[in-house]
Amino acid sequence: MRLWGRATAARRRMLCLWLLLLGFALATLALSDLFNRDRSRTQQNPGPPRRPLQRFPGEPDLEVIVDSRDPALELGADLAPLKSLQEDQLLFVPSTQGTKNPPQKKGSYKVLLPGTNRDTRATAHPTHGEMGKAVVLHLEGAERDSEIAAVQKYGFNEVVSEKISLHRRLPEARHPACLGERYSESLPSASAVICFHDEAWSTLLRTVHSVLDTAPKQYLQEVLLVDDLSLHGHLKNVLSEYVSHLDGVRLIRSTRRLGVGGCRALGAARAAGEVLVFMDSHCECQKGWLEPLLERVAQDRTRVVSPIMDVIDWQTFQYNATQWPVRGVFDWKLDFHWESNPQLQDKDPESAVQSLRSPALGGGVLAIDRHFFQSVGAYDPGMLLWGEEQIELSIRVWSCGGSMEVVPCSRVAHLDHHHPPYQFPDQELLQRNKIRIADTWMDAYRKIFYRRDTLAHFIRQSESPNITERLRLKRGLGCRNFHWYLTTVYPQLYIPQDRPALSGELYNVGTGSCADYPRGQDLQDGAMSIAPCTGTGSQHCDLNSELEVRWGPMGALCFDARGERVVLSPCPRQRPTISRLRWKFIKLSGQLVHQQSQLCLEAVKEEGLPQSSPKNVSTHTGGLFLRPCNHHPRQQWHFEQLVAPKGA
Ligand SMILES: *[C@@H]1O[C@H](CO)[C@@H](O)[C@H](O)[C@H]1NC(C)=O
Ligand SMILES: *[C@@H]1O[C@H](CO)[C@@H](O)[C@H](O)[C@H]1NC(C)=O
Ligand SMILES: *[C@@H]1O[C@H](CO)[C@@H](O)[C@H](O)[C@H]1NC(C)=O
């Protein structure tokens, strides 16, 4: 009996175990179905989407209406036809106008309320039942080490972002004089066009709410969210549904990847406001940002304006106000920079509220009259994905009758990414976009670019961009040439002379290396080093007729001497230049002689560094020193021109 009893007990335990296992398997199946629901709709899956977990299972998806209207018919007579539109099948999610249901009342997606944190949200949905709780708990556990994963996925700490209210207010950063500014009663209406591709939920929605919370209703025509073929699950039906409850927000989805320019052009073609405000999908607006922009555009419809772009830290999401004055520029590699330029600051107290003409504007936030945008050629449809479109637009606007400026009483913060949000499918994409700019807009000056980006040069040698349409546009609009742009709009940009045998990589015979300065290192140290020659144009320098050796893509840094060290320092504007910066190249001996000291430039490898020199000066492979002239190969140099003088 006891034996039998024990056997029954064992069987019972087995049965329990099996039942448990079965239950577990069923639960797992149900869960994985939940997980996969959104994934199965997209071909590629970008990892398990976290958001849809908090949806109610079984709730019907929002109906998506295929917009069958011919987009070409909708474009007004003044609008340039956009080829990409005709090829696209547009999916429209109609905005349910006048809905009285604020999104906060819905329980089917995560809503971030001011002051709520993850824990309170996790328990805010009692109807989830046991299964839902299990999932949430599981996520809570996984979250502890998910910050790194978030940074890898998005280029910023999305875990921190999720804990911050979608309606957070930025601390006041405007100049006090701005608060007293008065704007016209009848400003034009604005359409905010926000393109996104796989943006994080919190940053995207914070951008939208920030616009809705700060832009006066009478001026904000609409917010157009344009989905540039996102793959992440949370940007699918959950977003459609969320948006359908927001007044004045429309969602447009492209079924083809358009890139920034194409995506914004699509939004522009659908916009009804008089002024387009293009905005990146990870921004937060300062109070009163819209009115100063609209005022400047209303005064002159060919004016393209940007707010001061403040910075949101990618790790902490702290808001950091940018110092005024600031303007947008680009260098000879066609890379864009915001330039803090105290020299431009007048003693005029008005300068705190006065707009500053800017040779270029970043792509983060941009306000432009809708008709002017179309008539000046929208964005170049030949540009791929992203990068460079802001420089193309800048040169075009200035050259073809418009202007650009930064408006200091308008501030919008932009989330700085740790790394680019999307990886380029191929690294040459950026070069191809640059080539389009160089060939369309830079005339003979494009050679200066190709010498500093030899990859672009070699691509250009094997293929020609089709810029027929853009050249036609340029002719049709009677645009000015690049020489005019350089002398009138951006006279501060140094124009390299790039003389044969006096420019290129500075090659040292004794070490077989090239003069180098680690890119990205700030100028506090400034010590030049030597490094293997790259052949990319990154080590390009230019000995000009002023006898300065100009360095860097701006050509704004000069070979200078600090004791026996050769360092870089900002080149002075004055002419003739200061004697400490003058060098003479003796072609016969290959010596580069510092004119003030009459010492010669010598390359010294790391192990050859004299004991007296401070250890930290050169952590690189070596350094450049001034030494009494001799004929040692370490004092023999030549300028290696990587790109034939004929140019591209
Ligand atoms: C804010 O910006 C300034 C200047 O760019 C920088 O020195 C400072 O570290 C930044 N602060 C934060 C909190 O990021
Ligand atoms: C360049 O593009 C235009 C239209 O944009 C087209 O008509 C032309 O055939 C293209 N040329 C080449 C060589 O592909
Ligand atoms: C050299 O650099 C290290 C860290 O890189 C620093 O701790 C040290 O103080 C520096 N020494 C000098 C002399 O600057």
From TrEMBL:
Localization in the cell: Golgi apparatus membrane
EC number: 2.4.1.-
Cofactor(s) demanded: Mn(2+)
Main localisation: Golgi
Enzyme class: transferase
Membrane topology: Single-pass type II membrane protein
Cited SUPFAM superfamilies: Nucleotide-diphospho-sugar transferases, Ricin B-like lectins
Domain of life: Eukaryota
Pathway(s) per entry: Protein modification; protein glycosylation
UniProt keyword terms in alphabetical order: Disulfide bond, Glycosyltransferase, Golgi apparatus, Lectin, Manganese, Signal, Transferase
Domain Ricin B lectin: 503-640
Region spans: Disordered: 39-58, 94-113
GO molecular function: carbohydrate binding; polypeptide N-acetylgalactosaminyltransferase activity
One of the record's GO cellular component terms: Golgi membrane
Family: Belongs to the glycosyltransferase 2 family. GalNAc-T subfamily.
PANTHER family linked: N-ACETYLGALACTOSAMINYLTRANSFERASE (PTHR11675), POLYPEPTIDE N-ACETYLGALACTOSAMINYLTRANSFERASE 15 (PTHR11675:SF36)
Protein name: Polypeptide N-acetylgalactosaminyltransferase
Species: Sparus aurata (Gilthead sea bream)
Gene assigned in the entry: GALNT15
